[in-house]
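quick one before i forget lol
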Amino acid sequence: MPSIEQLEKLLAADPKDTFVLYGLAQEWAKRGDAGKAVEFYDRCLAEDPHYCYAYFHKARALEDAGRREEAIEALRVGVGAAREAGDEKALGEMGSYLDELRGEGWAA
């Protein structure tokens, strides 16, 4: 994966590039900066509300930061987006994660 600095240069060329926004979010998450990660996941989702894995990883970053209820909400929205997009794989993965966080049964 390119470095944050490399990704920022790519983003400067195209500030709406969802792949780059997602990549920056992932890199910030790896560094343990949930705030920056969530910022970039949100920017990615603002450009493409059906970028399903951004919801999943946003929830992970929020959970890692101790923000469990926000993580649950990110997954709830993500499940809806995955349904709209017809992305069964993302729907299943987010549903399972949501189930884990809520401690409830999941039904797609």
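fyi The mean pLDDT is 94.
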